[in-house]
Give the backbone structure.
Amino acid sequence: MGTEATTQDIELSVIVPFYNEEDNIRPLYEEIRDTLEKIGRSYEMIFVNDGSHDKTLGRGIEIAKEDPHVHMIDLLRNYGQTAGLMAGLDHASGQIIVSMDGDGQNDPGEIPKLLEKLDEGFSVVSGWREDRQDKEFTRKLPSRIANWLISKVSGVHLHDYGCALKAYKREVVEQVRLYGEMHRFIPIYTVWQGGKIAEVPVNHRARVHGESKYGLNRIFKVLLDLFLVMFMERYMTKPIYIFGGFGFLSLALSGLCALWAIWLKIFDGTSFILTPLPTLVGTFFTTGVLCILMGLLAELLMRTYFEAQDKKIYQVKNHNNFPKE
């Protein structure tokens, strides 16, 4: 074992969430340990038990007792990969954070490659499973579609958003709060904050033990989270723009339906009650008014959110020639 470092001296934190991976946790630990010992940086491993029903927790505690570099976090129930990563981030001490899956498919031997790229000045280095060892139609094809769509919508182009093997500088992730499936969007947050991201091909291995926890339904969760991320980035401080936009569109449609109904009445002799247009007028008008009112309410909520917590709507990159507070 390497020399144990104090919390202040730790350079590298490796975070691994586990869910029902009793046969993978020790082999993966040994691989990570051997890799980190060769790197020569002070390190810690943070294992997060995400509500496993098997022997994952017990085996993780055994490892933590054997190796002071290992810290075991046990979550109350299964919250999902993003929550597991967030728990690890909240307890990490390293200046560099490395995340990976607990299923053994990410190769710990690729960690030095990520760190070398990070040392070139990048804020986040993401792994790219160029030769992915997964089923084509249930895993690889949906992933390619999702990656293409995320890249197009966000403007941040990566081949593999879903690869859990990533390295981050601490300042990039310490202010980020993650929900849903949003851990994969950290590179997008990084670019929005002015950081630099890189992507490097990494070895991907077939699963040896256990079963995959991911299904096709996950792609819909990812897409919904993507829309939420884009909404928060573009309209977080001005929600009236999107609600008001829908509101005015509905009011415009209400007006068009009213004009159409009047035109039919005057020039075609069609009674109002013989068409659905009066109903559409009322529906669109009501929807428009409600959207505008919701926008006003959202504006009040956002102002309360920022002012009550003394949050800023901007982030300062650096100060020059200002007196120290």
